[in-house]
Amino acid sequence: MKKTIITVVGHDTVGIIAKVCTYLAENNINILDISQTIVQGYFNMMMIVDMNESEHPFVETAEHLDALGKEIGVIIRCQREDIFNSMHRI
Fold this sequence. Notes:
3 helices; 4-stranded antiparallel β-sheet; 37% helix; single chain; globular; alpha+beta
């Protein structure tokens, strides 16, 4: 399984989750786990997704999500699970 960590951060507006999840569904990226919160008007979401069925390579998906984030006014970052785990290991 090719797991990826996706984070979305920015000012809360209507449709953030819908737009990100629509992109993922249209590109055969399965959401395995999702957590989101809003603190004093700031939206924060973290997702763990499976990219096994995606037709696009990781780099291309990350670029598409970065562009989507700019379009909707948030920052979207993608990181491979193995790199994420290595960076956060104590």
